[in-house]
Amino acid sequence: MKKIIFSLLLVSGLINTVMAAEGNIEAGKAKSGMCAACHGANGLSASPNFPNLAGQHADYIAKQLKSFKDGNRTDAMMAPMAAGLSNQDMADLGAFFASQSRTVEKSSDASDTSASGNVVAAVTKFVPDAAAGKSIYELGDPSRSIAACVNCHGKEWRSEVLIYPNLAKQHSVYIEKQLHSFKAGNRKDPAMNQFAAALSDNEIKNIGAYFTDTKAVANVKARRPAAPSALSENAIAGKAKAAACAACHSADGNSLVAAYPKLAGQSARYIAKQLVDFKVGASSNGQEGRSDAVMAGMVMALSEQDMLELGSYFAAQKVSAGNGSDNELGRKLYFGGDAARGITACVSCHGVKGNGMPKAGFPAVAGQHVEYLAAQLNQFSKKTRANDKNGMMRSIAKRLKKDDVAALSQFMSSLK
Ligand code: HEC
Ligand code: HEC
Ligand code: HEC
Ligand code: HEC
């Protein structure tokens, strides 16, 4: 636990140092006059259509203003507001609003229509279930590749990573609008586009309802994650089949050759997906899936059940120490990303210890061979590997310089 808290502190520190301009609260206050009409003088807006800015992370605010300015995030009202702002203005405005307190209580959401107050209309209308919203927030839904929101947005909606917005005490109407916008792809973020696309309209209402009155469901037990049933049975069956893989990946999945990835400790789900992708790649002549001449030959005869069993076997093995070494640049990019260059922090998907997030399909990278990691980053960057959903890795890898790739690969491999 200590280690995690330390890492998170590290993340916050790093992001601060990579942001270009240092914001000034007083200067921001002076520039915020024209924002007050919609967002309120202290960043607490009176209308649910205008997001609260008070207490939001300064870096996140500056990032959004930049997005509105260069058109990556579109909104008819905000575009002209951001158009004339310099980087310094954005940093100052961020610093000002971040310094304001978001003490607004539930009453400010009284005009939200998604609240549970619609008792009369209940018979015909869908009644949002705040407890179900809480369940998605805390646990996600692994079966649909929805990561738990709490992983990024934080407990009590106080995110620790400064470019992940705080959702605490935000208007539920605004939250729902953003989720629909991510779902439709109008607002772009690789992670959010994937999660929102999998949410039904009613689930989005459930999540909005949760934000409207989180206290009402404080004591409702969230759905328990499903027990990893029958996994050991699959792993036993997989062991026999893994003999065919031993030549390259070793019997216990800790391959000794850098070009052959270690499979030990990798998630079963991710392994199975790669095997499916290799098969699709082979049968579509590289148009879809993942192409590799060697692996193509290995997967053609495998059934989906075989793939699951092989994945379960390797997932149950322990990965050996990698050949990489800790270094400053790699650590900095891994935990902090580079907001100015649009590089998302790797930690958000590959985890604090590099163990990945099995349920969301994000692979483990800890202990992997340096050379293999670098090769994959280069493949994503050149798009010769394109089996990552929504281009999640391609969009990041293409922004990495040669030195970044080398440093990151060393660092990831050194993680334990
Ligand atoms: C005419 C009304 C209006 C004015 C004035 C205005 N905004 Fe906005 N702002 C909006 C709306 C509407 C949205 C939500 C856009 C959406 O739905 O994506 C927004 C969104 C934002 C966001 C994104 C918040 C989030 O949680 O992602 C930031 C940051 C922001 N505004 C900052 C500012 C600043 C700084 C100013 C003053 C320079 C300003 N706005 C002036 C209407 C306004
Ligand atoms: C892997 C990290 C991650 C996870 C998990 C995640 N989010 Fe996000 N979320 C983000 C990032 C990053 C942004 C900001 C994107 C941008 O810069 O425009 C965001 C933005 C949002 C916003 C818009 C906030 C605003 O102020 O405009 C909402 C709402 C949201 N997320 C809800 C959710 C919900 C609900 C879930 C769970 C189903 C979830 N998120 C899971 C990373 C994540
Ligand atoms: C002749 C050598 C060879 C054999 C035998 C082999 N593989 Fe591979 N495997 C490779 C190579 C090379 C790659 C890397 C491909 C690339 O760079 O994209 C790979 C990649 C993989 C990956 C992707 C790993 C990741 O981290 O993305 C998986 C999963 C995999 N192999 C599983 C298997 C399984 C299961 C078997 C046995 C049924 C097997 N392999 C047999 C050479 C082999
Ligand atoms: C939004 C989530 C996300 C972020 C952020 C992210 N990754 Fe990934 N990464 C993925 C996913 C998903 C895959 C696997 C794609 C697939 O299904 O084949 C992946 C795969 C990889 C692989 C290949 C692993 C293997 O075994 O073949 C490497 C290496 C990697 N990422 C490195 C990075 C680095 C370095 C960063 C930060 C600069 C980063 N990732 C940031 C989601 C992410």
Provide the succession of SSEs.
HHHHHHHHHHHHHHHHHHHHH
Q: In DSSP terms, counting alpha (H) and pi (I) runs of 4 or more, how many helices?
A: 21
End-to-end distance: 15 Å
Would you state the CATH class of the largest domain? Mainly Alpha
Q: Which regions are unreliable across 5 or more consecutive residues at pLDDT < 50?
A: 1-19, 105-123, 225-230
Can you describe what's shown?
- With 416 residues, this protein is mostly helical.
- The protein has four domains: 2-102, Cytochrome c-like domain (Cytochrome Bc1 Complex, Chain D, domain 2), CATH 1.10.760; 126-217, Cytochrome c-like domain (Cytochrome Bc1 Complex, Chain D, domain 2), CATH 1.10.760.10; 231-315, Cytochrome Bc1 Complex, Chain D, domain 2 (Orthogonal Bundle); 328-414, Cytochrome Bc1 Complex, Chain D, domain 2 (Orthogonal Bundle).
- The protein is 49% helix and 0% strand.
- It has helices at 2-18, 25-31, 36-39, 58-70, 78-83, 87-99, 130-139, 150-153, 172-184, 190-198, 201-212, 231-241, 246-249, 268-283, 293-299, 304-315, 328-336, 347-350, 370-382, 392-397, 402-414.
- The radius of gyration is 23 Å and the shape is globular.
- The two termini are 15 Å apart.
- The relative contact order is 0.11.
- The model is unreliable at 1-19, 105-123 and 225-230 (pLDDT under 50).
- It binds heme C (4 copies).
- One heme C is lined by residues 51, 63, 136, 146-147, 149, 151-153, 164-165, 167, 175, 178-179, 189, 191-192, 195, 207, 348-349.
